[in-house]
Amino acid sequence: LLQLIAKSQLTSLSGAAQKNYFNILDKIVRKVMEDQYNPRLIKDLLQDLSSTLCILIRGVGKSVLVGNINIWICRLETILLWQQQLKNLQMNKQVNNGLTLSDLPLHMLNNILYRFSDGWDIITLGQVTPTLYMLSEDRQLWKKLCQYHFAEKQFCRHLIPSEKGHIDWKLMYFALQKYYPIKEQYGDTLHFCRHCSILFWK
């Protein structure tokens, strides 16, 4: 809404609405300066607004500007000041000395991968680091996934051997997924409350 007003609807606002509009912008700029969160959005907004104001001030008499021209020149100067403040904004680097996923031992990372029941989750996690990629390509991991979701008769019909003659369990998983539905998982059993007549998780 603020962007739309900045681009084309500024002159359609009443004097009070325009004053409120600039007060809101002032609060947004202050908030961004304090939190340093998403400054790009407000920079784009101020750029659009300053362009619109420059055109309106140059074309005074042709366009409808509510209020004295000097007020609008002051507002333009305020916008330019905000832009300068945001330009000088030094983004603080977030320092985090805690453990990251990469710091976990291999067996723990492996255990995490074995907890996934969706092949796409395994592939996505494998893209995070080279170590996770190596673990995500493990044949045993994909074999377990196939055995969990599909019956032996199902994957015996669609055996996909690799170049070395081994079964390519990863390809098998995605091939079987096209033919058969994967097993649905539920975090907890639903319960029924006789007093409230509603379903709920324990």
From TrEMBL:
InterPro entries: F-box-like_dom_sf (IPR036047), FBX25/32 (IPR040394)
One Gene Ontology biological process: protein ubiquitination
GO cellular component term of the entry, any: nucleus
Pathway: Protein modification; protein ubiquitination
Subcellular location: Nucleus
Entry annotated with the keyword Endoplasmic reticulum: no
UniProt keyword terms in alphabetical order: Nucleus, Ubl conjugation pathway
Main location: nucleus
Described function: Substrate-recognition component of the SCF (SKP1-CUL1-F-box protein)-type E3 ubiquitin ligase complex. May play a role in accumulation of expanded polyglutamine (polyQ) protein huntingtin (HTT).
Protein name as it appears in the record: F-box only protein 25
